[in-house]
Amino acid sequence: MGSGNGQNGGAKDRNLVVLQLGGGNDYLNTIVPYENGLYYDNRPTIAHDPDKILKINDEIGFRPDLEPIKRLWDEGKVAIIHGIGYPEPNRSHFRSMDIWHTAMPEEIGTEGWLGRVIRDIDPTAENVLTGVNFGRGLPRSMGLKGVPVASVGNLETYGLFPEMEDEYLRKFAIDSFAKMYGGKGKDAVMDFLGQTGASALKGADLLGTATGKYKSSIEYGDNPIGNDLKNAATVMFAGLGTRIFHTSYGSFDTHSGEVFKHDLLWQDTARAVGDFWDDIAEHGMDDDTVIFMFSEFGRRIKDNGSGTDHGSGGVAFLIGNSVKGGMYGEYPSLEEKDQIEGDLAYNNDFRMTYSSILEQWLEIEAAPIVNGRFEQFDLIKS
Amino acid sequence: MSTSEIALMAHLMRRAGFTATRDELETYVAGGYEARVEQLLNPGDPEVIPDDIIRRVHFSLDEGPDGAAAQWMYRMITTKNPLEEKITLFWHSLFATAYSKTNNSRSILNQIEMFRRFSLGSFRDLLVELSKDPAMIFWLDNNDNHNGKVNENYGRELLELFALGIGTYTENDVKDAARAFTGWTLGNVDYMAVKANKDSFSPYGRIAWHFEYRPDDHDDGEKTFMGETGRFNGEDIVDIIARQPAAARFVSTRLFQFFAADQVDEQGEKVIEQMIQSYFDSGYEIRSVLRTLFNSDFFKSEAARFARVKAPVELVIGVIRQAGSYREPNLGIEGVSSFSYYMGQGIMRPPSVEGWHEGEEWIESGALLERVNFVAQELGNTSLPGIKRIIERVGAENGGTLSPIEFVERCLDVMGPIEVEDETKEVLVSHVARRGDIDLRDESVHDESTKRAGELLSLIGSTREFQMA
């Protein structure tokens, strides 16, 4: 692996944007095997019209609303990782998400893989904004003791007392907060609280400057994923040293009414990803950034008359100028004999993809982060 | 009624409950400290609402972990017997079972209901129930623990994390304990394992697992456990555990850390010794162990106050109880579980079987922002009944105008009393001083005064000191 050119290990100025499609994205209706009769047999209610598929080759293609991603695919910037998963698939959302977050399928892990990445990049937590989550609550993937992560719901009001409408009063309250947390405490716990409060304020102050600096010709869609990725771009362009960006969208848990719901979800997501890409290209950050998009599992092969239930074997995407566009892994067979309990069989461990991103893109040793050595895909241009 | 009596009662209610309002504190003080301890230790809420009624009126609660957690949190908010819920939360933290693997909130709610029933009784009985609990069996794979094919997961955690603590038993004890629990399984295991793993709760919801003992799958052979030999079954193992000094020390120490102080110092060790004595004197009764703790000089001393970082659930429920919000059936109730989740403690979502890492580990920058913002919003909402009452009391105790320092001191007093460091108080005083004296009873400036009071309450809720219980 590369030793990296950053001071603390890892390639400098390379950003990773992780977009989690929560709820279990339906792989078969995302990258569609439009020439396969079994697809139509199994999907009497929710199959896509083959004429509308954006063809990748004469077997599979993107669902129609992935046009913005197809455009990047045509430019050679998209890696599609087929049949991604892990041994003994778990079809509980929470457990499966934990597995992806901690890179621990066999045991219950507590350290987030992105938390470890952030610690590797910034071991002394010098910058409280090395990792930023766009959304509320700390995702487990970023959770690690001693690693500060800002979770930004609304960037414009991020920080203390967002509910205070009177800006003057809010500033005054924040000022008093800073004073109260600034002094030494009577014991170690009070000191620690003081430091933590001060670092939260520092992060909020820095993030607060980002919105004012942001200028772009891109009009994002007015929906949560559009807002979150716009916020990610805003923070990225502000040059605050953020390297790991995380956000999630969903729920892709389409048990019922899938045709309608899945369409809306992907319309929003694909547009947001396309807009985000154009935005960072406009700001010259497209050579320094890759986007990784995944879901905790795929869905059943057979539809249930309205949607699909939880399955295994999914699809992930890696997007960027530095990404070697193409297909990785194998598109899983729909034959009954190849299925696992009615699901697509996975054929590559997600930790292979994690390891490839870590070593080839971030130039960080992967084994300690993903809890073992895994074969890699050749995903990044050298 | 002296200030020190109020302060002591406030301390008891922060620890053995989820804080109390000033009006409640005065009622309790009138009855006496020890009488209040007895009330707490002998719960029986005449107004208790059955779970199914809570669900029926809160139709926005779904069967995911957030909806189920909020169902329990609603009980914490409304109960007349806060210790019953607090000790149940203790057991949920100690015997941490997560939704993530079980995928079945009904089974976890059943487990919590079981904790509630056995929470203050015999530790031995509680461990027997725990060993039979379907969510626990599935969580720690005891349904895969078979005669001749032992799965040690439950046997090991029972000794290490639930009852004895590491270093007090041998590897052979683990193995033979696990053998004794073979055949303790789920009745509908094949069907439920598949169903739990594959389906989501929509559209028909889940059914709960049930416990089944299968003599044909039980290893009836001779076992040696903690120096005793016999053809032990699971209950025999629990009997042996319950009479170990290590068990008494383990559970007393954990109770001490949860109810008294994050760190155990020399003084604390002495209290734990007394708790251990009560454990054996009472036949392993948790109620007696807690009685000893709450009535100890150490617990009642000033040094024990504000010595624990509030867990997120304590913080959220405490503030809601003080503000008087979320009492009525409310479409936003599921948000209550999100608040504590954003702060790092999702009920039913402990990160692992080890439960949450408590104390200082609750404090990280993102979680602190969530804590402060939640508290500030709730305490600053002057339309809430509890906040109105605080302001009314702050204003009632003087003849008219309050100087900034009087205003701050009265608010700190009525809200707790809360002790803050001098530097903190100076900031609070200078914060309100910029707009001079305040008169909370002058009708002509009522709106403005109320606003200022809400602002100050928010700021008090934002202090470092307020993070401590």
**Main sheet strand line-up of chain B:** 1-2
Number of helices of chain A: 10
The main β sheet of chain A shows up as: 9 strands, mixed
Question: What spatial form of chain A do the alpha-carbon principal axes imply?
Answer: globular
Strand portion of chain A, in percent?
5-15%
- Using a beta-carbon cutoff below 8 angstroms, give the protein chain pair with the largest interface and the number of residues from each chain: A-B, 56 and 57 residues
Low-confidence regions of chain B: none
Give the radius of gyration of chain B. 24 Å
- Looking at how many chains there are and whether they match, the oligomeric state comes to heterodimer
Count of the separate structural domains of chain B: 2
Q: Quick check: average pLDDT of chain A? A: 93
The helix/strand series of chain A, from N terminus to C terminus, equals: EEHEEHEHHEEHHHEHEEEEHH
What is the total tally of β strands of chain B? Answer: 4
Q: Please bin the fraction of helical residues of chain B.
A: 55-70%
| Radius of gyration of chain A, whole Å | 21 Å
Strand composition percent of chain B: under 5%
Report on this structure.
The complex is a heterodimer of chains A (382) and B (469). Chain A starts with 14 loop residues before the first strand and ends in a 12-residue tail after the last helix. In chain A, the strands form two sheets. In chain A, strands 1, 5, 6, 7, 8, 9, 10, 11 and 12 form a nine-stranded mixed β-sheet that branches. The N terminus of chain A is likely disordered. The relative contact order of chain A is 0.22. Chain A is built from ten helices and twelve strands. Chain A has 382 residues and is of the alpha/beta class. Chain B folds into two domains: 302 residues, no CATH class; 77 residues. In chain B, the strands form two sheets. Chain B has a two-stranded antiparallel ribbon. A two-stranded antiparallel ribbon of chain B has the order 3-4. In chain B, a hairpin with a 2-residue loop joins strand 3 and strand 4. With 469 residues, chain B is mostly helical. Chain B is elongated. Chains A and B meet through helix 3, helix 5 and helix 6 of A and helix 7, helix 13, helix 20, helix 21 and helix 24 of B.
